Amino acid sequence: MFTYCKSAYFYTLKRILTILAKPKVRLVLVSCSILYLELSLIRFIPAYIRYLGYFTNFILLGSFLGIGLGCLLADKKINISIFLPVLLLLLVTGVKLFKFEVQITSSQTLYFKSNSGDSLIESYILLPGIFLMVTLIFMAISQNLGRLLTHFSPLTAYSWDLAGSIIGIILFTIGAFLNTPPVVWFGIFTFIYLLSTFAKSRQTLIAGILLFISTFLTTRLDTLPTIWSPYQKIAAYSVSNPLHENDKPNTHWRLYVNNISHQEMTPYSEVANFYTIHYGAWPHTVFKSALIVGSGSGQDVNVALHQGINTIDAVEIDPTITNLGKLLHPDRPYADPRVTLFINDARSFLENTNKRYDLVIFALPDSTILSTSLSNLRLESFLFTTDAFAQVRTHLTPDGIFVLYNFYRTQWLVDKIAVMLTQTFNQTPVIARFEDNLAVFMIGPKLHNFIPTKPFVSWKGALQLEPATDNWPFLYLNGSGIPNIYIKSLMMILFIGMGLWLICTRGRYIQSFAPDFFFLGAAFLLIETKAIVNFNLLFGATWLVNSLVFLGILLCVLLAIVISRLRKMKLTLLMFLLFISLFLEYATPLTALLLPNAWIRYGLATIFFFAPILLANVIFSTLFKKSDAPAHHFGANLIGAFVGGTGEYFSLLLGYRNLILIAIIFYALAFIFAIKRKV
């Protein structure tokens, strides 16, 4: 019996090794591990480097460049994958041990609050440094990808690569849903990566050991217990706050999000003045209904309940924060039957409800991260546009009032919000100012009978500041333009990228450069970014929406491969159809798709924004299946995506709608070079 079991064990092990040795299986596993690691680093690094969450596209750009350069090194004898464990270990331990902070001295930035002053490093030093480390890591892991691509015909290789990417995004989405910590992410990555290189050499075994060490290090250095929501790292700790010597301490809680003090949970008797000041402005009024946007852990909801409001709709995008509020808030506001909690993006909620409210509050909505690593949009960017304010106006009762409060860094930011409110409501808001650049705005129909009394005063400013709109949703910029903080950092990473490319090609950069594939990659990244931004606006900037859109794009690419296999289509016709679809997208205002029926809106948006993506990938597949150097051409395409990712910053200058024009130029160049190559 023992001999039989032993034989069965060795037979099973041999079968597993045989399956893992198949190039198709290895290609799927490598592609899966690459995308999984990319998503892991995009979540992990900003959680420890303060304010890097506003620059996550630098991590994405590094991964694109690294994958592209790794594929270009596919035919080199040197095996750079042996450096992967050391590079990843250095990055993980460096990020967690030093907890650097991006120094942001310019007021032209995408955040409300100022720096803390701890471990500050200039953005144009820290950001390129992180970019270089990420690039080297993905170069090390992607050389094997490039080698595996050469085992098959180009389209077959591309299909298996996409299959692995789809598995990777599904695995990470499930992990986000389950609130898994980094040790799980890096553990899963290590497991998949080792399977892809299983039993190849002793170097692989050593690499696996080092990778496992790096994963365990990620769990040992947090000073506070942490929870990983689908969006960010959250730590909660209690604060003893005795009022008098003879009083028992009143425990309240403070939440830290990505190492930034984010919100407090205190008894009503201890809340700050700005939470209640707008209620005091109407001493003889009891609001019947309220909508609280950014309800968080429940502090604003708690105040509203104590003010006697009958019904409260509370909207919060991060379910982990609300769960902590339910568990830890001393007054348990979410347990009150007058409160209905909605876990949703605020714009999505406003677009899908017909309710009207006596009071709408934007309660300190100030995220620590971007809504997607492909853009400069923060989770709340679409809340602070004239279009969003107009939407709020439609949800106010005839005697309703709209209140906003937050800590604003500069006077011009307060003036800019006042300008946007004035233009939207056709009236002047009243503002109460406090220390630390805290301001409370009030505007709406109820204000017509309001006589300003201190601390509220009528705003008196000039209407010269450029308002934020859904096309240009950058509240935190004084005007259209790319701030120096981004220009310096982008110049640095472009210089790094060019240097690494020249080193990898060793003087053969002209021969190895495939301009048609390069410009296809640059253009596709821009239309992909535009599609995700549009879906964020139409359906909310939630993690689930972003995951589904990414998955939809990958499935769209897979469909394009099937189409290019089944039908032989002329490149000229495909390009013509692509240009028509892009011009239609450019000419059609996004508001035309904001239909009341969510299913019709979803159907039209899918057709409208995925049609260019499908056509673009049919074009890529048509060219790629004729490739005589698939690894090099795939690498050139990804390096183009890196350049297209830097081009996304032109949205700060031109708005997102005009990114389509840049994409059209790139596609035109790709078409010209493809014709010159006579493909």
Give a written overview of the molecule.
The chain has 679 residues and is α/β, with parallel strands linked by helices. The chain is globular, with a radius of gyration of 27 Å. The protein has helices at residues 2-20, 23-48, 57-72, 84-98, 123-149, 154-177, 182-196, 202-217, 277-280, 299-306, 319-328, 346-351, 386-394, 411-425, 484-505, 509-512, 515-539, 543-566, 571-587, 598-624, 630-647, 651-654, 659-676; strands spanning 101-103, 120-122, 226-228, 233-241, 250-257, 260-265, 289-293, 311-316, 339-343, 357-363, 396-407, 430-433, 438-443, 456-458. 50% of the residues are buried. The strands form three sheets. It has an eight-stranded mixed beta sheet with strand order 9-8-7-10-11-13-12-14, with helices on both faces. Strand 12 and strand 13 form a beta hairpin. Helix 3 runs parallel beside helix 5.
| Low-pLDDT segments | 110-118, 242-249
Order of strands in the sheet with the most strands? 9-8-7-10-11-13-12-14
- What's the structural domain tally? 2
Mean pLDDT: 83
User: What is the approximate shape?
Assistant: globular
The end-to-end distance, rounded to whole angstroms, is 63 Å
In CATH, the topology of the largest domain is named: Growth Hormone, Chain: A
Number of helices: 23
**Total strands:** 14
Radius of gyration: 27 Å
The CATH architecture designation of the largest domain is: Up-down Bundle
Query: What proportion of the residues is helical, as a percent range?
Result: 40-55%
| Class by alpha and beta content | alpha/beta
Strand content: 5-15%
The CATH class label of the largest domain is Mainly Alpha
Largest sheet: 8 strands, mixed
